[in-house]
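Why does residue order matter? Because the sequence determines the fold. Keep that principle in mind as you read this record.
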Amino acid sequence: MSKENVDVSLEGNKLPTSLQQVGIITKNEMLNYFRSRRFLVLLVIALLISGLLTFAVWHAGISNVATNALGFYSTWWGFSATLLVVFCAVFFGGDAISGEFQNKTGYFLVGNPIRRSSIYIGKWIAAFVASLIIFGVFTVITLANGFGYFGVNIPNLFVESFAFTILYLVAALGFTFFFSSVFKTSSMSIMVTVILLLFGFSLIDALLTDLVHIEPWFSLAYGSGIVGNVMTSPFPAHITSTHIGAGGRGPLFTTYNATIPEGIAIMVVYFAVTAILGLYLFERKEFN
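Structure:
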């Protein structure tokens, strides 16, 4: 965030309230997204994903993709929505705090009579609002395809999945803001969050479940599994164990699926813990 934006926003004799400070930071951060073109880049990515899905369904034929509306939304939304969450979290939150240290802009920002908590919250709200706009576009295209094939028929389970996706977005942004507060370089904070959200959690989940048969209840990826599973009928069993090999005497293979209450709890706890820790670290760090 530029020094000029903050100086203009805080000019005058009356110090803005904490709420006004949050609004100022949110507004300026949104402007920064548009100026840096990262919002446009992510919008193009969302449109490309939507376009590829639209072409794939059209080319394969709807009869080969789904026989009803719920099956269509389950196929379209499950994986694509969670992937888009990761993109939004990384693009808008990966360097939200670390960038202030790396670019030295935070030195001028905290020199103004403005709370660090207002800076942190304002930046988080801006990232959340920008992500919602991206998801709004993706959702409209999803619904347009669904209406074209199955009419105006929005399954209740898709609405639940959409709500869980937004909750996952909230948790993922809290997670990325935490690592953005840990590191003072944008490249490091972005790299760590990309690795963990795209590969790290899934790899840890697989190793724990396959090797030691432990439920990965502490994994954000595990909790976010309810985004796709909620549209599966019937809902996948919490624990499934099978023996691999001839005669069912091979190694035991165990699969875990988070229940809906468990998935919600995991994502809520991730957001609360990482957001608080991220703000705590940001409050204690010094700008040089």
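The longest strand covers residues 239-243.
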